[in-house]
Specification:
The protein is α+β, with helices and mostly antiparallel strands. It is built from 4 helices and 9 strands, in the order ββββαβαββαββα. The protein has one domain: Ribosomal Protein S5, domain 2 (2-Layer Sandwich), CATH 3.30.230.70. Strands 1-2-3-5-4 form a 5-stranded mixed β-sheet. It is globular and about 55 Å long.
Length: 228
Amino acid sequence: MKRIDGRKPDEMREMSAKAGIIPRADGSGYFQIGNTIAYAAVYGPRNLYPRFLQDPQKGILRVNYNMMPFSSKGERVRPGGNRRSKELGLVIEKSLLPVVNLYEFPNAVVDVFVELPQTDAGTRCAGICAAAIALADAGIPMRDLVAAVSAGKAGDTVILDLNYEEDSAEEGADIPVAMTGRSKEITLLQMDGRMTAEDLRKAVQLCRKGISQIIAVQQKALQEKYAP
């Protein structure tokens, strides 16, 4: 089966990544997959205020997600925060928490800001990939990298890394999956649409393959910044 953009069912869009691209941030990352671009900036750890939010046992992670106006291939995005952006910020936060060691930063907060100036599906996945690079660049202790990609269904075929046309198809299904690099521990699995158990297994297997490719791109970005 050939897809709308000519890819095979298990083929990813072209990717690129960079680390340390925002000079005044404590850490930053850039991740592009197809026409979807995500920037992430990390600030902290720094003291958390107001004080009643502080945890004396460990720090907290906060993720702010924002799609810029006119970034979407679909309808224009309204400027400012909304329920959707808060939900996706929380999704990215929960995807990263299993690998981030916050016990070294009691009463502190690590803020991650994810901005998307251009989108063509897979925004939460691109945000996770950029944020993981930014956290590593900031020197936040992490036991592994996290990467994410979506799989879904077009007609009778399970496909990897959906673009906008595939993601917005009425009969389709979209499954964003995030995993750790070494252990392949799943830190995010959502589903929009319907899919059989067998197709779901196929989708997760495809995502595992795609995430291995993304992890290699993330590692290369970090190595290029810190290589002697």
